[in-house]
Every structure is written in C-alpha cells, then in structure tokens.
Amino acid sequence: MLAAIEAGGTKFVCAVGDENGNIVERTQIPTTVPEETMGKVIEFFRNFSVDAIGIGSFGPIDINQESPTYGFITSTPKIGWKDYPFVQAMKDAFAVPVGFNTDVNAAALGEASLGAAKGLDSCLYITVGTGIGAGAFVQGQLLQGLSHPEMGHTLVRRHPDDPYQGRCPYHHDCLEGLAAGPAIEERWGVKGVELAARAEVWDLEGYYLAQAIMQYILILSPKKIILGGGVSHQEQVFTSIYKYLPELLQGYVSLPELSSYIVRPGLGDEAGITGALILAQRSLKSK
Ligand code: ADP
Ligand code: ZN
Q1: Nearest to residue 278, comparing CAs of 148, 129, 128, 135?
Q2: Tens-digit pLDDT profile for the chain (287 aa)?
Q3: CA trace torsion 223, 229, 231, 232 (10° rounding)
Q4: Which fold does the domain 116-264 belong to in CATH?
C-alpha cells in the first residue's frame, strides 16, 4: 500500500493506493499549523499498512538529498511551516521510504506516467492558481539542480496598457505577480471566476503566460505542456496563449499543433496526488 500527500497552502489531500493511480481511500485536511495538520495526516495513514510515502509539497522546499535540510519546507511565509522537517516527521511516524518533491513536479510525474504526456519522456506541468509554478519531467527524470526550479517567478514584459503594479512580495511584476489568481482579482477588482465574460482579462492573461511559456520552450524543449490550476479553467486562457505564442516565437521553433501541445491535465485535478503515489513507489524502488 502506497501513501500519498498533496500538501497545499489551503489543504492537504492524503490518499492511499497504488502506483497506477488507483486510490483506495482519501481525505482532505485543512492546512493550519504543522502540529494540527500533521497530527491528522499521521492519524489518517495509521489506518493502513503503508509501505512507502510520496509527498508533493508547496514550496519552496529542499529536495537536495545531500543537504542537511533535505526534506524541509524552507522559506514559506506560512506560520509554523518555515524550516519544517516534513520528511523527518513522516519517517518518525512510519519508518518507511519517503519520496519528496514539489507539488508541480509530482503533477508533472503523474501526467507523464498516466496523463496527457503518458508515454513521453518529457513534459512541463504549469499550475496557474493562487501562485504560478511549474514542474518539469526531462529525459524521464524530474528536473532538479541546486534544488527545484521556480519557473513562476520568471520575468515578463509588461503590457503597455497594463498599469497594474504586480503583487509578488519579492519581485512585484514577475509572472506570478502579474498573472496568478490573486493578481487577476486585484487588477480587475473581482474574482477570476466572475470575469468569464470579460475577454480583455483572458487576453492579457494569455499575453503574460505565452511569454513565460516561450522561455520554458526555449530552455527545456518539452514534448508536451500541461496547464492546470484554477485560472486554467478559463478556456479563453488557452485561446489567448495559442494567439500570442506564435507571434512571439515567429516560427523560430517548430512546434506541434498548439491545441494538442499545450493542453489540460489528462488526470484533471488528480495529477498531483497521482504523482505523489508514483513518488512513493519510486522511493520504495530506490531503497
Ligand atoms: P491553489 O492554487 O490554491 O491550489 P487553485 O488552483 O484553485 O488553488 O487556484 C485558486 C486561484 O484560482 C484563485 O485565485 C481563484 O480566484 C482562481 N480561480 C479558481 N477557479 C477559477 C475559475 N474557474 N476561473 C478563474 N479563476 C479561477
Ligand atoms: Zn516573483
């Protein structure tokens, strides 16, 4: 039995199942402080005989196995979670192998194994939600260097008619600062879901996302790009990206038909938790 955790800023999704994405049981636990949230996580998994645990976590996290702080959530502003030893807490409770990666890397792994990029040895999974992040599966491996990439904070050119200052606490008008859900809400004054009929909102959203996607394509050359997260529920975001990306690339890179190259998650909202199950299985294998 494999255990999986998709650890998000608002909730933790916990599931037990197998590496084929079959889930036997699941639960959702609100993200409060570690003592409370992790207490409930551990209590849930105690009901099962767990062989390995896979975690896809919000970040930044330390995924460098050589590092003394491997398995920690590092510099989050979330109360109580800064410098939290996530992997150690699970190992202390269960004494089984633990796979640990970012939420978006887990989703990329899920999509590459069983979703929209099934059978491919590379893909990029981008989430546009409360934040923007991307996970990359490259030559059959999750991309990792010093630690994990932080593609959501890529710089983009401002639209000349966009006066919005951006809201990233670190960079103001990076991609996340200009185009994540909270930026849309602050710029236009209402939540994204209520802006469905405002074409200019989604045109601008695609204007920024296309620029970042261009950089990702130029640097990583992914075989498939998967766009998930709440904001991507707006179909018009895809339409706008399909419009701006060719204008930006100017034919320099030859791409497949965009509607089959930049796609929704094949696993829907299950990409992250499925990827976490596969992380669990991989940790068991590498043991
Ligand atoms: P999280 O990133 O916290 O895991 P989501 O991916 O659902 O969660 O992203 C939440 C953000 O996406 C919020 O800013 C919300 O306003 C926005 N959002 C959610 N659903 C939609 C929608 N259908 N259309 C536009 N924006 C949405
Ligand atoms: Zn930023």
Answers
A1: 135
A2: 999 999 999 999 999 999 999 999 999 999 999 999 999 999 999 999 999 999 999 989 999 999 999 999 998 888 899 999 999 999 999 999 999 999 999 999 999 999 999 999 999 999 999 999 999 999 999 999 988 999 999 999 999 999 999 999 999 999 999 999 999 999 999 999 999 999 999 999 999 999 999 999 999 999 999 999 999 999 999 999 999 999 999 999 999 999 999 999 999 999 999 999 999 999 999 97
A3: 30
A4: Nucleotidyltransferase; domain 5 (3.30.420)
- Mutation test residue for ligand 1: of 128, 130, 194, 226, the one with most atoms within 8 Å of CB: 130
Which residue among 231, 240, 270 is best mutated to probe the pocket of ligand 1, counting the most ligand atoms within 8 A of its Cβ? 231
Instruction: Give distance in angstroms: CA of 250 to centre of ligand 1.
Output: 31
150 C-alpha to ligand 2 centroid (Å):
9
CA-closest candidate to residue 27, choices 50, 42, 44:
44
Ligand 1 atom showing the smallest separation from residue 103 Cα: 4
Determine which helix (DSSP H) or strand (DSSP E) holds 275, and give its type and residue range: helix 271-285
Cα distance between residue 271 and residue 215, in whole Å: 24
CB under 6 Å to ligand 1: residues? 8-10, 129-130, 181-182, 185, 191-193, 229-231, 233-234
d(CA 15, CA 6): 9
Would you list the domain boundaries of the chain? Answer: 2-102+269-286, 116-264
Residue nearest to atom 18 of ligand 1 (CA): 230
Specify the fold of 2-102+269-286: Nucleotidyltransferase; domain 5 (3.30.420)
